[in-house]
Amino acid sequence: MELIKYENFTLQEKEVYNAMYTAKLQELDSKALFLLCKSEYIKCVAKLGYKPKDEQEIMFEVQLLMEETKSYKWLTENQLILIFNRAIKGEFSEGQVFYSIANFNQWVKKFYQEIQRVEMKAIEASRKEEINPIPSDDQLKQQCILTINSYVESVLKAKEKGKEYVFPFGGLHHLYDLASRFGIINLTKERKIELMNELSTNLPQEAKVEIAKGQAYKEFILSLADMDFRLDKNGEAI
Questions:
Q1: How many CA atoms lie within 13 A of 27 on its CB side?
Q2: This prediction's pTM
């Protein structure tokens, strides 16, 4: 989706949208994640006027922050930076801003709500720009298959370059619903429960369901790529 085309998007909304498509924190190695968390933590406490802490205290706080980010598997590098930048300005608080792990979790929750709003706005803008006839079930299924095969190709191309393919943040749960509807993806009840249990209890139930569906879709793509399979027009792996 080319957000730049949507004139009704504010600069802030564009930042939120574009941040979805940067590297996820879980894809960073431990050193890169540590340096990012340390940078954001030090910037945050400095701008909030906290007294300087010694290196041992800083290390402790940064380790806590690193562990907390693991609860949000969808969170990207630029999203973390945006969260801190906006929290420092008081955009997530009604009164004085304080840094704590508990407050960080609240900042993430409020930021996630904004992501959902921006994503829906982008979808609506896209619909207004391109009005197409309602596709038939067969057309939808073929589009679903083409999309899956396209993702498989992207994963394999990234692998050839020695890189890991970074899936887009938004919309994968919709693709899962479509693939599930046509019987292309069939998750067991046990696997659905496992995916939900892997997510932070701090997330709203609706968010957990969306993220779990997105993860299931990615796992399906990666399993096809591992075996160098594609889907035929009937949705069968070949």
A1: 13
A2: 0.55
